[in-house]
Design a protein that fits this description.
The protein has 13 helices and eleven strands. It has about 375 residues and is of the alpha+beta class.
């Protein structure tokens, strides 16, 4: 899906500058020899601090995970350079402790015993409240933050974005294997993460007051400990002037992550424009939206999804839905100069599938070897 393939190019959108964008990526730490997940995050994070900066790397829930946090970026080139820098720095730190940094939504191969929880007061409190739900949470996502200064606009823009979440999940699924087993899902990470009581699609939000009331009720119910634990697929960030899209698995390559983040930025910018223009958002029923996300997690790019970005919700193959998404974001992408980069990635997804398809192809080319999947995905520290 290049701009030329989409038909006559549209005029660039009238923009002064694209919104800011930032990316958080979570990774599996795998042993260099076993390729199974290993619990060495505390050491790897310490080693990474000096390489990529204290504000750019952190431990996650499981000690078999590392998370990188990008700087705030404006251009595609700046964003890709930052993602490459963080991935290589974290991979070099992992190599110091005989680990591979693996961008897969789930550990491809197994883990040595019960996963220890990262030693943070917050995570210890999680364990006390949620018990065994903390087990097997070493799953890895890609979160994209897009700058939206006005809180009311951000909340209302979520209504325009929530219907696109199933499609974004379908094209970014990258976790077919878990602990040495083919799960038959495109995104097994989504199924694991959906166990949290505060996870899933966001409700339709009537404004900031409605949003704050729902968050307060979830906290009061015990389903969430604080606003940061509202794990919706898309949400106004609880601590930044951004909209945060949390639906994707971590993606296999820096270039793919960049293209996805630019797509999300264009989609968020279009949603904010729709809010400003008074365009009503489709009120997709929550059960249908949740079912569509399950379909996307199960079947990825080969599935049929309800068109939850519309009012009639007609079941549609992913390919035509990608074409509709392209039409929605092309004005913004063209205005920002990101159309070819994103269009080329979407074309590749349409022809070859998402990261989950790639993982299965790698295994197939190597006689079913999941060690080969880990080796192929692992980030090079050079």
């Amino acid at each position: 899906m290049t701009p030329a393939a989409a038909g006559t190019p549209v005029a660039p959108a009238e923009v002064t500058a694209p919104p800011t964008v930032g990316v958080e990526e979570e990774f599996v730490l795998a042993g260099r020899h076993s390729r199974a997940a290993v619990h060495r995050a505390p050491s790897v994070v310490r080693a990474a601090l000096g390489r990529i900066g204290a504000s750019h790397v952190t431990a996650e829930v499981s000690q078999a995970q590392v998370e990188t946090v990008s700087a705030v970026c404006r251009t595609a080139a700046e964003l890709e350079a930052e993602i490459v820098r963080l991935r290589r720095g974290a991979a070099a730190a992992a190599a110091e402790y005989d680990c591979l940094l693996v961008p897969s939504g789930t550990p491809v191969l197994g883990r040595p015993g019960p996963p220890p929880i990262a030693d943070k007061p917050r995570y210890r409190a999680f364990a006390r409240r949620f018990g065994p739900l903390m087990h097997d949470q070493g799953v890895n996502a890609c979160h994209v933050h897009v700058g939206v200064d006005d809180r009311e606009e951000a909340v209302r823009a979520v209504n325009h974005l929530r219907g696109w979440m199933p499609l974004l999940l379908a094209i970014t699924g990258n976790s077919p294997y878990s602990d040495g087993t083919d799960t038959a899902y495109a995104s097994w990470r989504t199924m694991v993460w959906s166990r949290w009581p505060s996870a899933g699609p966001p409700p339709y939000l009537r404004g900031v007051a409605h949003y704050e009331r729902i968050v307060g009720q979830l906290i009061a119910s015990g389903a969430a400990m604080d606003p940061a634990m509202i794990y919706w697929h898309v949400r106004p960030s609880p601590h930044l002037p951004t909209i945060e899209v949390r639906i994707a698995d971590v993606l296999p390559e820096a270039a793919t992550t960049t293209a996805y983040a630019l797509l999300v930025r264009a989609l968020v910018a279009g949603a904010v424009e729709a809010v400003r223009a008074g365009e009503p958002a489709p009120e997709v029923p929550d059960p249908l939206l949740r079912a569509a996300c399950w379909q996307a997690a199960r079947h990825g790019t080969s599935g049929i999804l309800p068109a939850t970005h519309t009012r009639d919700h007609t079941p549609t193959a992913v390919g035509p839905l990608v074409e509709e998404l392209w039409k929605r974001v092309e004005p913004q992408l063209t205005g920002y100069g990101d159309d070819r980069r994103v269009g080329d990635w979407l074309s590749a997804v349409q022809s070859r599938g998402s990261g989950s398809s790639r993982q299965r192809r790698i295994a197939g080319h190597h006689g079913g070897s999941l060690q080969a999947v880990v080796d192929t995905l692992a980030v090079e520290p050079r």
